[in-house]
Amino acid sequence: MRTPPPLRAASVLALALAAAACRHPEPRTLFLNFDAEGSSRALTSGWSGYEKTASGDTFVWARAREAALAVTADGPADRLIRFRAWPFGWEGAPPQTVTVWVNDVRLETLTVWEGPRVYATASPGPAWKSGVNVLRFEFGWAEAPKDRIPGAADTRTLAAAFDWIEILPIGAEDSRQK
């Protein structure tokens, strides 16, 4: 019985490189701050122009019952979508809801409470594809300030304001808190 010849270093290196090429790269974190420099190409439909809070933070209003973003992803991977938002409000306003979608996959419906807060929803790997993906927000309602607030002149319909959105590989949020 013959024993096979020992593997040479070059063969081992070639096998290791081939195996590494077959693995999917670790998905990267995507952060969009809603300002002209950081997110203008990502806003596809349903958004207002950039505004600032009294403290100078930039934000945009979702100005329709649906607003969408185009985001580039490295391919299928479980991800966490986090965003800081607050609803348009008036005396007696009903709670605002938002349903989050990635491409055509419905993730979750969240209640958007009064005041700026951070919200999060998980998205399964198969919802994502390599290249451009559509992140869509569907709101329970959108109303014009002029129709709800005495003396208001703003005729835009507003659903919720967004300060930023962050898309993280699942597990990355744990390492950031350490």
Shape: globular
Q: Any guess at the CATH architecture?
A: Sandwich
* Strand percent estimate: 35-45%
Question: What is the domain tally?
Answer: 1
For the record, give the distance between the C-alpha atoms at the N and C termini, rounded to a whole number. Answer: 56 Å
Counting DSSP H or I runs of 4 or more residues, the number of helices is 4
Largest sheet at a glance?
Answer: 6 strands, antiparallel
CATH topology: Jelly Rolls
Characteristic terms for this protein:
6-stranded antiparallel β-sheet; Jelly Rolls; 178 residues; 11 strands; disordered C terminus
Structure report:
The chain has 178 residues and is an alpha+beta fold. The protein has a single domain, classed as Sandwich (Jelly Rolls). It has four helices and eleven strands; from the N terminus they run αβαβββββββββαβα. The strands form two sheets. Strands 1, 3, 4, 6, 9 and 11 form a six-stranded antiparallel sheet that branches.
In short:
The protein has 178 residues and is an alpha+beta fold.
Blueprint (SSEs and pairs):
Blueprint: H1 9-22, E1 30-33, H2 36-39, E2 43-45, E3 51-52, E4 58-62, E5 66-74, E6 79-87, E7 96-102, E8 105-112, E9 117-123, E10 130-139, H3 145-148, E11 160-169, H4 172-176
